[in-house]
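User: Can you help me understand a structure? I only have the sequence.
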Amino acid sequence: MANYSSDPSALDRAFHALGDATRRGVLAQLALGEAPVSKLAEPYDMALPTFLQHLKVLEAGGLVSSRKKGRVRLCRLEAARLAELKNWITQYEQAWSARLDRLDDFLNENDPNKDT
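Assistant: Let's start by predicting it. Here is the structure, written out as tokens:
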């Protein structure tokens, strides 16, 4: 699994994978546990090759992994990658929150309507 600081394109692939409702739905299904491709594809009105392309994007983003068990391909959620995405987002959330707090302090200190 690539680290975002060492492979910035890994972040692009992960967010690209999250950019589609079908793929987000697959992740929601996999949050319940490992599942065969056939079960994951059931809720979607699309040909299996089209669905497999969605899985390929999820795997390229590091969000899903798959393995063969006999004739069945099982998929599972890669929770560690989701945790990395969350950490990346949290860093920016904290930075922006601090900036907005400083702006709020500045505006309150320089409010002409403020009683002194």
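Now, to help you interpret it: The mean pLDDT is 88. The longest helix spans residues 79-109. Let me know which part you'd like to focus on.
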